[in-house]
Amino acid sequence: MRDFYASPFGMIYSAYMERPRLSRLIGRAAWGGDSKRYYASMGAIAEVPAGGTVVDCPCGAGPALRAVRPGGAVRYVAADLSPSMIRRARKRAERRGLTGIELVEADATDLPLPDNSADLFVSFWGLHCFDDPPAALAEAARVLKPDGRLVGASFVAGSDGLRQRLLIRPDLGDFGQVATQPELEAWLGEAGFEPARIDRSGPMLFFDAHLHASGGTR
Q1: Which stretch of DSSP H or E encloses residue 84?
Q2: 112: helix, coil or strand?
Q3: Cα torsion 63, 67, 70, 75: sign
Q4: What is the CB-side half-sphere exposure of residue 140 using CA atoms within 13 A?
Q5: Is 152 exposed, middle or buried, given 0-12, 13-18 or 19+ CB atoms closer than 10 A?
Q6: How far apart are CA 90 and CA 54, in angstroms?
Q7: Which positions ≥6 away from 120 have C-beta within 8 Å?
Q8: 3-class SS at 190?
C-alpha cells in the first residue's frame, strides 16, 4: 500500500502539526474547529508515573513527543504504519534528546505488545483514517492495563456545516471509516472504555476514557 504521508502533503501536515499556533489557524480555516484541546491533552503523558508505559499510535511525525521529558523513567512506544512518519518521528526524538523512544512500524490493529502492559494509550488523529476503527480501539484495550487510560482526538462526520459534510466522508482522501460522534462513542463502549470527558469543536472530537477495571473486549 502506498505511503500516503510520504507525499508533499505528508511533509506539510507534519510541519504544521508540530506548531500549535499554525495548526489551530489551519484547523479553523480548513475544518472549522479548534485543535487547542489536542495539545492540552498531551499533558496526560507527563502524568504517567516512573516505570509506566505509554503507547502512542498512530504517532505520526511525533508531535506528542513534546510532552516527554528527556531522561524520564517512562517507557514510550511510538507506532505508526507509515515508514515516512516513523522516520520523521525518529528525527524529532533525536532533536529533543529523547534516546529511549521505541519506534515501531505496525498496524494499529496488531501491535507488538503484550496484553495489559500499558498505562496510557494516546491515539491522535488516526481513528478516522482506519478501515476498521473498532478493531483499533479493541487493540488499545488489549494492551492497556485494567483501568488504563485512553486519550485521543479524531475527526467525526455529521457536522452541521456544509463544508464539513462535503470534506469529511468515508473513503475520501485519507479518511477511512470515519464515524459520527454517536458511533465513535458506541465503539469506545464496545471496546470496554468509559469516557471521562468528551469535547467537540466542529468536526474535531477529543476524548479521555478509562478502561473498565475488568479489561476490554478480548
Answers
A1: helix 83-95
A2: coil
A3: negative
A4: 37
A5: buried
A6: 16
A7: 44, 45, 47, 48, 52, 53, 54, 55, 148, 149, 150, 151
A8: helix
Q: Which amino acid is at 26?
A: I
Distance CA 59, CA 127 (A): 12
pLDDT (tens, 9 = 90+) of the chain, 218 residues, equals 446 555 555 666 666 677 878 888 888 888 889 999 999 999 999 999 999 999 999 999 999 999 998 887 899 999 999 999 999 999 999 999 998 899 999 999 999 999 999 999 999 999 999 999 999 999 999 999 999 999 999 999 987 777 777 778 888 877 889 999 999 999 999 999 999 999 999 999 999 999 987 655 54
Query: Domains (ranges, CATH) in the chain?
Result: 4-211 (3.40.50.150)
